[in-house]
Structures are given as structure tokens and as C-alpha cells.
């Protein structure tokens, strides 16, 4: 599209993994916007690295998922999801709604 390669998310990703990766991706994109607005180059670089991890894990960047074996695909998303969880652990939902 418009001179750019476009790839869809790897359809073999388990839904729970795909959802976690999308949450990481959206949080990283928000962090890029915040860092850019603040003029914080280091934070922007770190946030862009998180975007890259998420996009590779989803199969949208890097070696095309259709050229990888099931084992390679699994190793790809497990590796990048672990890296993302180590960098920016998912938010915990400890609060309960009152009512």
C-alpha cells in the first residue's frame, strides 16, 4: 500500500496472547506520543523499541509468519512477549467495582 509492505497479524496466535500483545502495542504507541510531545528522545526511543517488539511478536514485522514453522512462530511471540512483560509489565486489575 502506497509503496509500503503491509502484513496482518499471525492468525495462529492464541487469542489471549494476541490480546496481550495488542495491549502492549497500544501502550507503547501512547508512550511514543507522550515522549514525542515532551521532547524526551530517550523515552521515545524506548517506546519505539516496545512498538517494534509488539509488531514482531504479532507477526507484522520481521520474518513473515507464513515463512516460519509453527515452532518458529511460537518462539517468536513467546520471546517478544516475555521481553515486553519484562520492560513494561501489564497493569494489574486489583480494584473491584463498588456497587
UniProtKB/TrEMBL annotation:
Residues 30-56 are annotated as: Disordered. Residues 39-49 have a biased composition (Basic and acidic residues). It comes from the Bacteria. This is Biopolymer transporter Tol. It comes from Streptomyces apricus.
Amino acid at each position: 500500500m502506497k509503496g509500503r509492505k503491509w502484513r496482518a497479524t499471525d492468525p495462529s496466535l492464541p487469542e489471549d496472547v494476541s490480546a496481550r500483545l495488542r495491549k502492549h502495542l497500544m501502550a507503547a504507541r501512547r508512550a511514543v506520543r507522550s515522549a514525542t510531545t515532551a521532547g524526551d528522545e530517550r523515552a521515545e526511543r524506548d517506546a519505539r523499541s516496545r512498538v517494534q517488539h509488539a509488531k514482531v511478536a504479532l507477526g507484522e514485522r520481521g520474518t513473515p509468519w507464513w515463512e516460519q514453522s509453527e515452532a518458529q512462530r511460537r518462539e517468536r511471540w513467546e520471546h517478544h512477549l516475555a521481553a515486553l512483560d519484562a520492560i513494561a509489565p501489564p497493569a494489574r486489575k486489583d480494584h473491584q467495582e463498588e456497587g
